[in-house]
Specification:
It catalyses: urate + NADH + O2 + H(+) = 5-hydroxyisourate + NAD(+) + H2O. Belongs to the FAD-dependent urate hydroxylase family. By secondary structure, the protein is α/β, with parallel strands linked by helices. 37% of the residues lie in helices and 27% in strands.
Length: 384
């Protein structure tokens, strides 16, 4: 049995790993000639780390995961601590730590684990055909490939999605812009073992420790889409948006390198129930493109892969396994997309009364409520 895996990102590589565990041959095709991930890093919460362990790649998380032992929120303008607490109770409750990681390094190491020479780059789908027994992908370079089934992990701009669900989706702008990148850990910004977030005015500034003594940072600002901003104005833009904010925020802005800082207009896609058509399945962002507001984008792709493997462990009938995968995942991923959207609106001041109420809650938060929310999300995964 052979699967065509479309996309060599986190979703595609984890799907290949899961199917390999079930004795299924996988051919992996990536549209770009060279991997250049969007976004500097991502938070792989405990459910995602469990998935990596299950797929045989836990050592990658051990090497890339930062020492994120505590969590804190600060008032963005004054710098005062709103709440600060240990994440140890969460780790104890769910049995695994969270791991903020470099996105580029994670993807690269997953590809190396599989075998870089076995991934075919520069393979962008032009069209596809499927019958009762096979799927054929035709690529823009004139080549083609045929397999028994296809897993389309080709991202938020998926070229396969419309074939599966029957219509073209539109991306929904989440009404904020995110700048992100990496800097060396500096205790003048925040402790090196803590996820620290500064909030105020519907904006966020956050740093998370990853491996090799670096912070992953991001700035969020509610803005209209399509502004004429780029790397040449990046530092001045941030200084303007965060004028009057606390000294650690200013130190962070002064530390960043505009040439390796990303500016992204954040979008998601309205959830849909159809993840499978015949012998083609959507996985990862192609199936559930979400905002990053609860840190579950990468985790949910890893969960998809684990469930896909579990379904083929139960039956080798392709269409039965894929429909079982769809049934087991569609409600979970819809919930995560909508949960992230709701958190996005509160965090970014869509209704400033609600946002101010959240700030007020943070000032009396002892950690129990935040940990309970994180735990609920984590244990909803397939390896709870």
């Amino acid at each position: 049995m052979k699967a065509l895996i479309i996309g060599a990102g986190i979703g595609g590589m984890s799907a290949a790993a899961a199917l390999k565990q079930q004795g299924i041959e996988c051919d992996i095709f990536e549209a770009v000639k060279e991997i250049k991930p969007v976004g500097a890093a991502l938070s792989i919460w405990s459910n995602g780390v469990k998935c990596m362990n299950h797929l045989g790649m836990g050592h990658i998380m051990d090497s890339l995961g930062g020492p994120m032992h505590n969590l804190a929120y600060h008032d963005g303008l004054t710098g005062a601590v709103m709440t600060q607490f240990s994440l140890s109770p969460l780790v104890e409750a769910v049995g695994e730590r969270p791991c903020p990681v470099s996105r580029a390094n994670l993807q690269s190491q997953m590809i190396d684990w599989w075998g870089r020479e076995k991934v075919q780059f520069g393979k962008r789908i032009e069209k596809l055909e499927q019958s009762e027994t096979c799927v054929t992908a035709y690529f823009t370079d004139g080549s083609s490939a045929t397999g028994d089934f296809m897993v389309a992990a080709d991202g938020t701009h998926s070229s396969v999605r419309a074939h599966v669900i029957g219509y073209q989706t539109e991306r929904r702008y989440a009404d904020y812009v995110n700048w992100n990148g990496l800097v060396n850990i500096d205790e003048n910004i925040a402790p090196g073992n803590q996820w620290t977030t500064f909030v105020g005015e519907g904006k966020r500034v956050s740093v998370m420790p990853i491996a090799d003594g670096r912070f992953y940072f991001f700035f969020d600002v509610p803005l209209p889409k399509g502004l004429n901003e780029d790397r040449t104005t990046l530092v001045d833009d941030l200084k303007g948006y965060f004028k009057g904010w606390a000294k650690p925020v200013q130190v962070l802005i002064d530390s960043i390198d505009p040439e390796v800082t990303n500016r992204i207009e954040i979008h998601d896609i309205e959830p849909f129930d159809t993840l499978v058509k015949g012998n083609i399945a959507l996985l990862g962002d192609s199936a559930h493109s979400t905002t990053p507001d609860i840190g579950q984008g990468g985790c949910s792709a890893l969960e998809d892969a684990v469930v896909l493997g579990q379904c083929f462990a139960e039956t080798k009938d392709i269409q039965t396994a894929l429909k079982d995968y769809e049934e087991k995942r569609r409600f979970r991923v819809k919930d995560l997309v909508l949960k992230a959207r709701k958190r996005c609106d509160v965090t970014h001041g869509k209704n400033m009364q609600e946002t101010q109420a959240w700030y007020d809650e943070l000032r009396v938060e002892k950690g129990d409520n935040i940990i309970a929310g994180l735990r609920t999300t984590i244990v909803g995964g397939p390896l709870a």
